[in-house]
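Quick one, probably user error.
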């Protein structure tokens, strides 16, 4: 095929059609008429010899060929956008930009207050909009509607850029008068106690927890399951701050990321203990769209977050020296 005879605007049409999966919405997004978009779809079908979108019971669905083409087309357009984008530096002190960041409750508690402090010092007119995982989809991040996602990810689209902010271990947080502290803190005494389950759903709307579904309960319960053991969970919460408050009750234990426990280091009513069994660590990562990889504003934000995460890591190391296993 002679590429010089191909209307490259059709790639833009294809990108939007596959994202919206609706001719009318795609037309609105591009600011053209619905007949013009329909004509574009017809020309794409002729060019590729494929229907691109087919009508099903759930709406317009991309064909297998279209699904294969989508990341390739997105990459091509991102490279073109990078090539023609003016290289203007980010003027932090003058910017009035809104940065939208999806952050888990854990990341929001441990990282975002410090990030906000630096933003207010360096870019006082910048606004930070922090969203929860249930507010956001991978598509929102991929299309740049959300600047960044900060979370622990089981999986992430291959097209995303990502960076590990720190590696996290687990800690047990409990009331200073908990009877467990009067005994050796062993696996048996741990399992004799009542527990607070805390985690955060991934992208999209979360659902209720089934206490019997160990595979969906997360790292702590999976680690126990591998030993053929199970803990008694008395309360489920999706908020680490709530879990830390509940741990103040005299007979409950919260097993949570050690940096979250570190937030309670000055609380005389709470004690932090090393879990009496091995729980695999996880990585806190930030991930962003390839569309924003070369954006000067976004590069400034990424540098700032990495610097702040490094500061948190350095301060936490002092706590980690007294908390075996936190390193």
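Nope, works fine. Designed sequence:
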């Amino acid at each position: 095929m002679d590429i010089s005879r191909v209307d490259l605007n059709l790639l833009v049409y294809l990108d939007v059609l596959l994202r919206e999966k609706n001719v009318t919405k795609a037309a609105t997004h591009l600011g053209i008429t619905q007949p013009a978009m329909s004509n574009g779809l017809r020309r794409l079908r002729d060019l590729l010899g494929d229907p691109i979108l087919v009508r099903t019971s759930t709406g317009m669905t991309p064909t297998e060929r279209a699904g294969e083409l989508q990341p390739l087309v997105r990459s091509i357009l991102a490279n073109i956008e990078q090539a023609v984008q003016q290289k203007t530096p980010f003027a932090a002190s003058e910017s009035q930009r809104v940065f939208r960041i999806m952050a888990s409750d854990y990341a929001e508690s441990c990282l975002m207050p410090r990030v906000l402090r630096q933003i207010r010092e360096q870019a006082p007119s910048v606004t930070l909009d922090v969203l929860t995982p249930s507010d956001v989809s991978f598509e929102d991040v991929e299309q740049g509607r959300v600047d960044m996602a900060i979370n622990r990810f089981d999986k992430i689209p291959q097209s995303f850029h990502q960076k590990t902010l720190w590696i996290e271990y687990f800690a047990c947080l409990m009331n200073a008068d908990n009877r467990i502290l009067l005994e050796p803190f062993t696996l048996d005494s741990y399992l004799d106690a009542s527990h607070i389950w805390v985690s955060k759903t991934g992208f999209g709307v979360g659902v209720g927890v089934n206490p019997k579904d160990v595979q969906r309960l997360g790292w702590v319960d999976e680690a126990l399951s591998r030993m053929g053991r199970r803990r008694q969970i008395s309360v489920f919460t999706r908020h680490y701050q709530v879990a830390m408050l509940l741990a103040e009750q005299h007979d409950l234990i919260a097993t949570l990321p050690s940096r979250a426990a570190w937030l309670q280091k000055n609380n005389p009513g709470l004690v932090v203990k090393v879990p009496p069994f091995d729980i695999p660590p996880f990585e806190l990562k930030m991930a962003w769209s390839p569309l924003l990889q070369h954006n000067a504003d976004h590069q400034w934000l990424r540098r700032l977050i990495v610097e702040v995460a490094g500061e948190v890591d350095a301060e936490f190391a002092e706590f980690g020296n007294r908390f075996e296993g936190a390193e």
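The chain has three domains: 3-84, 98-166+283-322, 170-280.
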